[in-house]
Each structure stands twice: as structure tokens, then as C-alpha cells.
Input
Amino acid sequence: MALICPQCGKAALYLETGGILGDIYHCKNCSYIGNFVIESDDPDLSDELKEGRRAEIGK
Ligand SMILES: [Zn+2]
Output
């Protein structure tokens, strides 16, 4: 099971801290910080996110 960053779709998360706010994850790839992460066995989950990013870039 890998933890996937919801922002960039990479499995580059590490656990920043566990405290009164709960577990906070930090992405080494895009500097996302938050407690929402995607759990997946598929390291290539990022397809959907990439599509969204492509749409943004295409503007
Ligand atoms: Zn990220």
C-alpha cells in the first residue's frame, strides 16, 4: 500500500508529524502538506490527476 499525494499523484509522501491536529503528511515532490492522502496499491494512480493538470496547462 502506497500513500499518494492528492496534488501531484506521486508516492512521495512522508509523515510530518502526529499531534493534536492528527497526522500531517508532507510531499517531497510538490510540497503538499495536509492530512488528506490517497492510499493505493497502484503507483500509477496519477493518470487522473495528470489529465486534470493537462487541462489546466492547456488553457
Ligand atoms: Zn505532491
The chain has a mean pLDDT of 79.
